[in-house]
Each structure stands twice: as structure tokens, then as C-alpha cells.
Amino acid sequence: MSVGYTVQDVFNRFYPVHEKSHSLSAAQRKVAYHIMNCKTGTFGVNISVCEDCGCISVHYNSCRDRCCPMCQEFPKEKWVDARREDVLDAPYFHAVFTVPEELNPVIYSNQKLLYDALYHASSATLSELAADGKHLGAQVGYICILHTWGSTINFHPHIHAIVLGGGLDIGNRWKDNGSEFFLPVRALSKLFRGKYLAELKQLWADGRLEFHGTAEPFRNYYTFKELLDDCYGREWVVYCKKPFDGAESVIRYLGKYTHRIAVSNYRIKGMTENTVTFAVKDYKDQGRWKDLTIPGEEFIRRFLMHVPPKRFVRIRHYGLLSSRNKAGKLTLCRNLLGCRKYLSRLKGLDAPAMIRLLYGKDVCKCTSCGGKMLIVPRGQHCPVPIPHLLC
Fold first, then answer.
1. How many domains does the chain have?
2. Chain-wide mean pLDDT for the chain?
3. How far is CA 33 from CA 4, 11, 30, 113, in A?
4. ∠ CA 79-80-85 to the nearest 5 degrees?
5. pTM
6. What does the DSSP 8-state code read for residue 149?
7. Distance CA 199, CA 116 (A)
8. Across the strands, what pairs with 145?
9. Interior angle at CA 213, CA 211 and CA 219, nearest 5
10. What Cα–Cα distance (Å) separates residue 105 from each residue in 100, 212, 362?
């Protein structure tokens, strides 16, 4: 089995057959088209010519799709760098909100509504408990990010929340509990469960839910009520990781979750005529990485399950980190804490300057002689014929 395969290779081999035998949404077809054609010339090219030696450099444009594994690094770096200005020298925590897998068929049939409900329930849980004087008694800030996959690319919707471990009380004074997480996990779990199921029941009562595929039995009121009763009786998984080691670690950590997709290229270990092998983390075996082999069409099916609804916002800011609060309240928090402001490194830079700073590569310098590379304007005659290129 060869190595060096990418998600694009998997789609090129297995997607055409998968498309003929499965009903796909417009969003899923669009993502598949983007992945298969990313950096192939389909989306255009940029040509540069060295003014000294005449060396020609051709760069194929990327698709910029948020589900494409080849297009996440640069947007991630830009987004994380912009968040540097929002970070405080204060404790931060990583909380995860997960729903029981029994709800997965209903959630998949109503992605937009029930993904939104995940945000509503998790954010309301954090803000309500943080404002309670028994726990902290302050308004906090947090960022919520939706992930819909597990390590095997199975359907596993959950919310990652990066939570500021302190906030402003009613008198606009800073308040925190140091390095100890200020919210009990059991209280988080119970309140999150109640809020999510309450919204789910309201959506049912309003007739806004749809039921397709394995969710079809839940059209029946009594079957749906049994599902809710079962979920009320379960312990919902909410946990919190250890606090971050300083503000800089928060900045680095954000990039791990904000622009992650279901499976990245580095996890593709091999491919045959019928199967795909990729690395998965076995949480039942202390999180060790192992290889999993599945049919190629099954890999495509699992990957496309995680295409978000059209224009769906996956990264959302709340409390002190929301857009309407950042300008004034974060400045107040920074003054109360006496901490410095972390400045953006990339603000005001053009793309070549960003690439030079982030990756140490000067795209404006010829790799052959070190001369200056000049961009060939679109429509201008190219001195050398290049395949797949319209000059």
C-alpha cells in the first residue's frame, strides 16, 4: 500500500461512483467539486516571472472551501492572529458539551436548527452558571466552536468552548477563582441537558422538525417522547480540561480547534482500488493512534456528513468576547488586571508579507537567482506555454 495520498486523491477515485448511488445536497456536491479541483488550475492561476533570469513560477489557486484540507492553514493563522488582541493574562479553560448519540438521527435530519440549539444551550448554560453568585457571580467571555465528527469520522456533534476563567461582576470589578474552574461539571451537565431538551421539545411542538432515514420512527409522538425520556435519564457528557499555561498558549490552542475539519491529509495512510486507510485515535486504549481501513465510498459518505449547512457560522463569540462587548469591556478588564495587550502581527500586511512572516518564504524572490519576481497580469501574453493555463 502506497503512502502520500490526500483527501483529494480519495475523492477523485471514489466520489464519482458514490455520487451516482447516493442522494447528496447541493452543499455536499459543492464541497466535493471544490476538493477535487483545488490547486489544479480550475480556479485560475497566478504567474510570476523573474526580471533577471526569466524563470517562470506558476501557482494554482486554491478553492478556499472551509471543508477542504488544503485551504485551512492560512485562514487559520490569520484568524488566530486577529484573536491575539482579545486575549487577557487570565485563566482560560476548555469545556466540551456533548449530546447522547441516541439524538444523532434527529440532529442530522435537522442540522441547522439543532446545531443552533447546541450553541444556545451551551452558551446559556455557561452564562447562567457564571452569573450565579454561588459559583462566580460575573459576566464571562467564551468562544464556541461546533465539531460534528469523532476520530473515525463518525457523526458526533459537540461544542468546544474556550472559556475565560473570570469576568466582571455587577459593579464592573474583575472577579476570578484563580486556576480552579469556577463551574462544577455536574451542574454544567444537568443545566445543559435541560436547556437542550427544552428547545428540542419546543421545536417539535412548533412543527419545525423533519425526520428522514433512521430518524423516521420519531415522527410518532410517543416514540419521540420515549427518546426524550431516555435522554432525560442519561448523564450527559460535559467535561473541562486543565487551564491553559498563559495567554500565548491560549492563542496557539485556538488554532487547533477553530479551523479543524473532519480528517486532514496527514491522517491518510494509504488507498487501494476499494479501500482507504487512515489514522484514528483509540480513546479506549489511552488515546493511541491506530490505522483504520474502510471502503472508499464509506469514507466519502462519512466525510460529507460533516459539511455544514449553507452560510452556517461555526465560530461564535459570547459575553465579554462578543462583538458588542469587546471594544469597551475587554479594555476595562485589561486595565483592571494590569496586563498588556497582545498585538496582531499580521494586521495591515499583504499576502506575500504574511507568508514571509509565517513561513519564512519570500514568494517575491526568484528561487533560482534571488531576483525580483514580477506578476504577469491576467490576460497578458505568457512568454512560455503552460498546461491548463489560459493566458
1. 1
2. 89
3. 21, 9, 5, 26
4. 100
5. 0.90
6. E
7. 10
8. 160, 315
9. 30
10. 11, 8, 49
Q: Is residue 95 part of a domain?
A: yes
Q: H/E element holding 187?
A: helix 185-205
Grid coordinates given for 143: 468562544
Instruction: Give the three cell numbers for residue 172.
Output: 464592573
Here the cell at position 380 is 497578458
Number of DSSP helices (H) and strands (E) in the chain, helices first: 12, 13
Which of 349, 255, 323 lies closest to 86 in space, CA to CA?
Answer: 323
CA distances from 27 to 119, 207, 255, 263, 309 (A): 22, 25, 25, 18, 7
Domain residues for the domain of 137 are 73-262+308-337
Axis-axis angle for helices 111-131, 185-205 (nearest 10): 140
Residue from 148, 151, 177 nearest 243 by CA: 177
* Structural domain contains residue 27: no
Task: Please tell me whether residue 148 adopts helix, strand or coil conformation.
Answer: strand
Mean pLDDT of 56-71: 91
* pLDDT for residue 358: 86
Q: Which helix (H) or strand (E) holds 92?
A: strand 92-98
Q: How far lies 139's CA from each of 36, 129, 171, 333, in Å?
A: 45, 10, 11, 11
Q: Quick check: 37 and 62 in contact, CB under 8 A?
A: no
Which amino acid is located at 13 in the chain? Answer: R
Residue 224 is predicted with a pLDDT of 96
Neighbour tally for 313: CB within 10 Å: 10
Has residue 242 been placed in a domain?
yes
- Kindly state whether residue 24 falls inside one of the protein's structural domains: no
Torsion of CA 344, 160, 301, 211, to 10 degrees: -130
* Cα 310 to chain centroid, rounded: 15
Tell me the residue ranges of DSSP E strands in 196-328.
238-240, 268-271, 275-282, 288-295, 315-319
| Section 22-37 average pLDDT | 95
Q: Scanning the structure block, which residue is given the C-alpha cell 455557561?
A: 126
Strand arrangement, sheet containing 155-164: 238-240, 92-98, 155-164, 141-149, 315-319
Find all residues with CB under 8 Å of 280, minimum gap 6, and list them. 151, 152, 267, 289, 290, 291, 292
pLDDT tens per residue across span 205-254: 999 999 999 999 999 999 999 999 999 999 999 988 776 777 677 777 77
Amino acid making up residue 259: H
